[in-house]
Amino acid sequence: MGNCNNMDFLVLALVGFIFLGKANGAIHYYDFVLQETNFTRLCSTKSILTVNGTLPGPTITVHRGDTAFINVHNQGYYGVTLHWHGVKQPRNPWSDGPENITQCPIQPGTNFTYEVIFSNEEGTLWWHAHSDWTRSTVHGAIIILPAAGTTYPFATPDAQETVILGSWFKGDVMEIIEEALATGDEPNISDAFTINGQPGDLYSCSNETTYRWIVDYGKTYLLKVINAVMNEEQFFAIANHTLTVVAQDASYIKPITTSYIMITPGQTMDILVTANQPPSQYYMASHPFMDGVNVSYNNSTTSAIVQYNGNYSSPSIIPFPTLPAEADETAADNFTKKIRALASKEHPIDVPLEIHSRIYMTLAINERICANSSCEGPDGNALASSLNNVSFVTPSVDILQAYYRGSNNGVYRTSFPNRPPNPFNYTGDVGNNTIYPNFGTRVRMIKYGAGVEIMFQGTNIIAPENHPMHLHGFSFYLVGTGSGIFDRRTSPKTYNLVDPPEVNTIGVPKNGWATIRFTADNPGVWFMHCHLERHTSWGMDTVLIVQNGNTTETSIRPPPAYMPPCSKS
Q1: Rounded Cα distance, 351 and 478, in Å
Q2: CB-based contact 470:459 (threshold 8 Å)
Q3: pLDDT digits (tens, 9 = 90+) for 404-415
């Protein structure tokens, strides 16, 4: 009789699990094994950290509203965390991933299971390592299909294809950033850009492995482009083919027909491409958009081949796309300013009109003073970066646990300023008094439910350039951008509060400004940082802590039974 009761219990439990799955979306399971793997690129072979031995790593495919459990086994040499870029993780910062912000690293020989909760995201996102520079080889796509019983807000494409733009370094990426931080100089630039892990025909020893996308004449494809490049925004185009951009950062936009896109590190775009050209071969290509001053960067071009099925003579010269010039700010701005939310009945937006928390945030490249001018950066100092003159110092234990348990013990301070402490001519002659920032782990507290507005202000300090700013835990509305200094009287009059794009990463124009808005309805500890990796390493970061609401449903979920312990990685 006892066995029958146990069986009844198991059946009831299984039924309950199925009902839970239907109510909250399906459940998916993935195993990710972090391991060193030999790869040959640019005429030489080296060992790189990978997931499951591939570059890019495996694709996570879900439907809107699903949940994925990803068990990460670390068989590498050092501690690593993973981040699910653009996934809001409602009430669940425990699985967001930035090292020593929401968790300590997964140590070699151990494993940790992330619970990745999808809510209203639909389209393309990506995952990547969030420890030092490991994301250069540890990354992959997240494909979020429409929920069951729904479809795209455009004709269903015949097929899909993913293109991940990446960086390849001949050297060891961990050694590159560690040496740069030790000497205070700029880190080495990458040696190539890649498309789906391959540099393409314009690099040495690469033409036999160039990535090829096989297409059928007359079919329309949903091309999912992800910029996983480490330190450069990118232009991207396909020869003789029109691009129709229909989504950015897993949110639908009004379709944009264009010959090229500009995409910053961290951003994703969904693009309809119809294979309507004479069957042949055509290059797709990508090179940097770089309008910065005093900035070292890789100025090369990666390529892949769009290859039509069928019988035809291979062209003696494969058509190559015309990309904007690398410093073409006008081309970058012209594309970015076209992006507007779809804002339809099926895909509405909700821009907060009442603002309770307003932050005016300057972005700057700085210097850290070195004793006896012993460093190799400017003036014998070390390069640094800051937000509101605070260069972020990553703690040795994670902020989330310190906050959740109420045991700060000096891990962080709640004194991140809501405006620059010493106003100056941000985009003009900045003088020497703005070069040296304060250093510390300062966070900003925000009440649950607050309408938040952040005005990012680029500055002319040392090396002005476009900054791709990314916020964890939220999608936000880009309500305005402009050149020069933000004017609190006239600039808001230019805001788009009707159909601003809902995104998770934006490019703040060089010596310009960008304003975002969002509702602080996701309690937790959420990292905000520039997605140019060298700037993150130098301190262009902060943390927003959204406090709990008044109910369990508006409060951070309890932590999982196991979190990676905090110890030296």
Answers
A1: 10
A2: no
A3: 999 888 999 999
Cα distance between residue 547 and residue 446, in whole Å: 6
- CATH class of the domain defined by 27-145: mainly beta
Place of tokens 């030092």: 132
pTM (2 decimals)?
0.95
Give me 40's structure tokens.
């040959």
Provide the token pair at 61: 């495919």
Q: Are 27 and 65 in contact (CB under 8 A)?
A: no
Scanning the structure block, which residue is given the tokens 């990426």?
Answer: 173
CATH topology match: 27-145 vs 159-337 = yes
Task: Respond yes or no on whether the N-terminal peptide bond of residue 56 is cis (omega within 30° of 0).
Answer: yes
**C-alpha separations of 54 from 36, 337, 383 in Å:** 10, 36, 34
For residue 509, what is the DSSP state?
P
CB count within 10 Å of CB 248 equals 29
Is the model's pLDDT at 363 over the cut of 50? yes
- Beta strand segments in 504-540, E: 505-508, 512-519, 524-530
Q: What is the pLDDT of residue 430?
A: 86
Residue pLDDT, tens place only, 21-35:
334 699 999 999 999
Q: Are 420 and 448 in contact (CB under 8 A)?
A: no
Q: What is the pLDDT of residues 498-536, one digit of tens each?
A: 999 999 999 999 999 999 999 999 999 999 999 999 999
- Residue 459 near residue 409, CB atoms below 8 Å: no
Which ranges in 173-251 belong to alpha helices (H)?
A: 173-183
> In this predicted structure, what is the pLDDT of residue 552?
97
What does the pLDDT look like over 95-108, one tens digit per residue?
999 999 999 999 99
Report yes or no: 467 and 540 within 8 Å, Cβ to Cβ. yes
The structure tokens listed for 33 are 């094994």
Please name every residue paired with 164 in a beta bridge, in sequence order, or none if there are none.
226
Residue ranges of the domains in the chain?
27-145, 159-337, 357-554
Q: Token pair of 101, please?
A: 């912000």
Structure token pair of residue 214:
């096989």
Pull the structure tokens for residue 415: 């004194």
Average pLDDT of the chain is 94
Q: What is the CATH number assigned to the segment(s) 159-337?
A: 2.60.40.420
The helix/strand/coil state of 274 is strand
Burial of 364 (0-12, 13-18, 19+ CB in 10 A): buried
| Separation of first and last alpha carbons in the chain | 52
Angle formed at CA 222 by CA 203 and CA 50, multiple of 5 degrees: 50
CATH fold label, 357-554: Immunoglobulin-like (2.60.40)
Q: What is the residue whose two structure tokens read 């030489």?
A: 44
Amino acid, res. 194? T
Look up residue 52 and give its DSSP letter: T
In order of 332, 384, 485, 521, the CA distances from 463 in angstroms are 19, 11, 17, 36
- Residue 17's contacts (CB-CB under 8 Å, 6 or more residues apart) are none
CA distance 234 to 285: 10
Question: CA 411 → CA 190, 367, 407, 414, 539, distances in Å?
Answer: 34, 24, 9, 10, 16
445 burial level (CB within 10 Å; 0-12, 13-18, 19+): middle
Instruction: Give the count of alpha carbons within 13 A of 192, CB side only.
Output: 25
